[in-house]
Amino acid sequence: xxxxxxxxxxxxxxxxxxxxxxxxxxxxxxxxxxxxxxxxxxxxxxxxxxxxxxxxxxxxxxxxxxxxxxxxxxxxxxxxxxxxxxxxxxxxxxxxxxxxxxxxxxxxxxx
Length: 111
Hints:
By secondary structure, the protein is of the alpha+beta class. It has one helix at 2-27; strands at 30-37, 43-51, 58-65, 71-79, 86-94, 101-109. The chain has 1 helix and 6 strands.
């Protein structure tokens, strides 16, 4: 029935978040979405806050979400070495359809 489906989806979501958090801790890279905007019919801009060792280049995979929570585009944002440990970066995700939101898929060290 519907309540069981909802509970199952919540549990799967919690497991996914936990696994993502453990993966982030093991690489020394943590990141989160600060916001998204500049939405057009074919793109969306996403802004991330990334906490990483300053001497470690990082790449972050992001996706644009359209109607019915379907991914309509993806991009990779590069975070170069140098600067502060915590940096704010932005990137544009080109989309195949109108985007409604954007999400972070994950960040990892390069190399």
